[in-house]
Predict the structure.
Amino acid sequence: MRRALLRVELLRLRRDPVGLLVIIALPVVFYLGFALGVPSPGADRAVVRANLMVGMASYGAATAASSLAGQAAVDRVQGWGRQLALTRLRDVDHVLVRGATAAGAGLLPTVVVYLTGALTGVRMSPTAWLLSGALVVLGAWPWALYGMAVGLAGRTQSATAAASAGLVLFAFVGDVFLPLSGVMQQLGRLSPMYGSVQLARFPIDRGRPLFDGQLADPWWQSLLVAVAWGAIFALLAVRQVARSRERG
Amino acid sequence: MAETALHLEQVGKRTHDGTVILHDVTLTLEAGQMMALMGGNGAGKSTLLDLVCGLTTPTSGRVTIHGHPPRAAIRAGGIGAMVQGGSLLPELTVAETIRTIAALHRVPRPTLDEDLLPLADRRVGALSGGERQRVKWALAILGNPRLLVLDEPTAGMDWHSRLRFWRQVRHHRDLGTTVLYATHYADEVDGTADLVAQLEAGRLVSLATPAQVRAAGTQEVGGAGLFTGLAALAGHRLSDQKPARTEGHRS
């Protein structure tokens, strides 16, 4: 049953080449803009770029996951959710499949940003490449649920745009674009994207701060924040899927 | 004694702002019966059908299908439906759509109906309204349900497709399927429905056989169609049926 729904979601992804291109190109452009624009001396350059690469890949994966799951909003407008509600499919299966497809789509920008990183001087151990990449893709899960919840809560296709705008804000306060310190970092630590991004960065240098004044983050704390936000988004998504059966 | 297929017990539905859509509706449909649901726009027909399909929940009362709540009946494959606002994905072909919904009904190898074969490879987005209704009908009967719920199922169909559609519905009824459907067409009631339930402003105002509806009309105005009978049963006087005069045309 899940396989049938998964097949449909992959088919839809394949039939939207423009959407796919945007999902992949945006984080690469961001990475190049930040990585090549930020001056950093000698040995530190590789570490700074590695941090930026993981941050941008996380942002790309989250965007891909959120926008694909936000397609749920379009489905709601089209009534596909009501059609599915007339089958034996359970809400939780629906959420799982859409979440998995969306989070899986996060793999594409991750691979492309990592390749770009390798070509622009990022150097890490093979284990760090693999582990951080896997954590980036795993970290996209909550964003699939977020995109689905926001998309379903809105009544029009503009809900997807609202989800994207929220994501940029979370990325900013989540230490993705620019390294945070002081009060901003203290506050940002509790924001939804911070935990998963710090976790994905952990294999680079085991959570060591990039510069003086930046706070170190134990991995368990980042994991706790990421899991807590994942649970909140999951609850919201299941609630919205149930609500989306109703007309209008 | 015939088995009860569908029972609504004092079912009410209010919106979040307190608007009453359905008020204390009690209805029973026995297995194998066909009931037409009639009433004006906004009478509550689609909401009632949504409640039966578990697409929305009542604010009071309860709905049971063969003794089970609607969502449980859906999960057991007991309900097939064509509901308003239940649409298909435009980017999928007809065959892909049917394969997907069949899998979600746990039907391993669905066969396309003869009249859908020429449409199999067409994208749903390229179909006409009537063709989409035919696809939705094919989806409704995929799981071989015991109860069919049809909300204005022939909207957009040409006369040929409508005739064919009702022939198929009656065939399913003959096999023992219970059918509840909403319609605005009198010719979709005569010779098809066993019972006609009439809703008005969310209340069930009459429940009768088509013959009883016509007889009520005959008594009221002497020789009448189904709609006059429905008006008579709802307690509207003949004067209610006349067009209202406007100030400018007063003689």
Q: What stands out?
A: Chain A is about 75% helix and 0% strand. Chain A touches chain B through 26 residues (CB under 8 Å).
